[in-house]
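Quick one, tokens below. Sequence please?
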């Protein structure tokens, strides 16, 4: 499976913060926003990832993440000339996807919860069409809303309904079989000239090939599109990290735990950042990982 992070858009709701900087490079407590969606794809076992953004910002992402080899990944970059809807990511990333299935995640979403890697890898293993992820909210009329049966099969999908049929908001994480590229090519632009992801999902719904995994109690989903939500996300990360002593979306640690890099490689990455608490944390988890590897031999 290939991964795509859609990090485009102009971030108008976050100006003046985004006057010269991509929203996805803004700090969310102790790390750049892009680390959070990247970590989700890594937890799903995905190692070939494309970041789609505007021309002005691509070099900044390259400077931060390079080609991904230091994390055991392969990261490529593609330009979105202007925002034309989420589903455009499949047209831009068609060559990157090739003959594989695809995972798309929005660059301003935070997901966190127990056993999330197992949830993701299990979903990838059973994928047969489209797999969405739903999160219960009290104001469902503000979101795309999915209705499911007892087995998780999607029954209906509505965009910002006046009378929602459920309280499950469709989050910014989507998994598809390879035919998503052709489906994205067949949908018509909306009145705003955008290729809507809901229209793609409805094709799978009509085919009876759409499912929705509910992220229930214990999970958190945060969308960082406004100043308030950006601050709230940073406070959430700060609170959990300081209380639990573990980092959320530490991509170096995830790369080691997923077997993408060795404990020794992780340690070296931590040494490069050793003057920060983030770097000290990486060094610590790498040393513990090395000790565990030694005991296992």
């Amino acid at each position: 499976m290939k991964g795509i992070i859609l990090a485009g858009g102009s971030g108008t709701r976050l100006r003046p913060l985004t006057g010269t900087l991509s929203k996805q490079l803004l700090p969310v407590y102790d790390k750049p926003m892009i680390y959070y969606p990247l970590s989700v794809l890594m937890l799903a076992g995905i190692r070939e990832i494309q970041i789609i953004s505007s021309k002005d910002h691509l070099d900044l992402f390259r400077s931060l993440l390079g080609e991904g080899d230091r994390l055991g990944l392969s990261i490529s970059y593609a330009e979105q000339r202007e925002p034309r809807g989420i589903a455009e990511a499949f047209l831009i990333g068609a060559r990157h996807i090739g003959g594989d299935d695809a995972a798309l995640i929005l660059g301003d979403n935070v997901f966190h919860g127990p056993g999330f890697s197992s949830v993701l890898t299990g979903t990838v293993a059973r994928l047969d069409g489209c797999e969405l992820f739903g999160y219960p909210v009290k104001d469902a009329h503000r979101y795309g809303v999915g209705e499911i049966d007892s087995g998780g099969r999607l029954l209906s999908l509505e965009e910002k309904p006046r009378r929602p049929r459920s309280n499950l908001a469709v989050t910014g994480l989507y998994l598809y079989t390879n035919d998503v590229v052709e489906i994205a090519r067949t949908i018509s632009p909306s009145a705003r000239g955008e290729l809507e992801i809901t229209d793609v999902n409805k094709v799978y719904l009509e085919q009876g090939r759409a499912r929705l995994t509910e992220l229930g109690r214990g999970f958190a989903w945060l969308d960082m599109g406004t100043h308030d939500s950006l601050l709230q996300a940073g406070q959430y990360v700060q609170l959990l990290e300081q209380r639990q002593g573990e980092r959320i979306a530490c991509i170096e640690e995830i790369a080691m735990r997923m077997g993408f890099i060795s404990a020794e490689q992780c340690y070296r990455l931590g040494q490069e950042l050793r003057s920060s608490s983030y770097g000290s944390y990486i060094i610590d988890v790498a040393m513990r990982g090395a000790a565990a590897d030694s005991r296992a031999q």
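The radius of gyration is 19 Å. Residues 2-246+256-261 form a domain with the Spore Coat Polysaccharide Biosynthesis Protein SpsA; Chain A fold (CATH 3.90.550.10).
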